[in-house]
Amino acid sequence: SMWRISRALTKAGYPLRLSLRRGQASVSYAQSLLGAPETRLTTLDNGLRIASEETNQPTCTVGLWIGCGSRYETEKNNGAGFFLEHMAFKGTKKHPQSALEQAVESMGGHLNAYTSREHTAYYMKTLSKDLPKAVELLAEVVQSLSLSEAEMEQQRTVALRELEEIEGSLQDVCLDLLH
């Protein structure tokens, strides 16, 4: 019962908070970590740091989080990370855009990226059995983009339009000014 679980967790040093309003228990942050898989940290010879977790699930997520967010940009290269993120899935030297999309779709995968103040992330969600192929595709995306002039000009227009939208958002402008 919930009472026995609560007593056991409290004895172990994890206080349980109950929500009486809806009759459901809400757990503390420490309790939520009890079922989390162990994270293994590995550093390769080339300095690349890897965090991995074994979940024994049929799906997985693999990603690259690169410390190159907007806070590290200068006036000269302002917006470069955001622009490259937009170019990421336009194709590589080995896979043109349609072939890259087909490779991801054939694995039932989802490839995405985002840029924040602290980092730029490229990640892929797919079936666990396809992890080696996902790692290969992700590495290809970040190491050998195909940057054609026409595609760069098109993405420049898209990126500028998105930046204009952000500048029209009071919340986004205030956050930028605070940083």
From TrEMBL:
Record-linked InterPro entries: Metalloenz_LuxS/M16, MPP/UQCRC_Complex, Pept_M16_N
Its signal peptide is none
Pfam family membership, one: Peptidase_M16
A GO CC annotation recorded here is: mitochondrion
Q: Where is the Peptidase M16 N-terminal domain?
A: 49-179
GO molecular function term, any single one: metal ion binding
What is the originating organism of this protein?
Culex pipiens
Which residue ranges traverse the bilayer?
A: none
Query: Per its UniProt record, what PANTHER family does this chain match?
Result: CYTOCHROME B-C1 COMPLEX SUBUNIT 1, MITOCHONDRIAL, METALLOPROTEASE
Tell me the protein's name: Cytochrome b-c1 complex subunit 1, mitochondrial
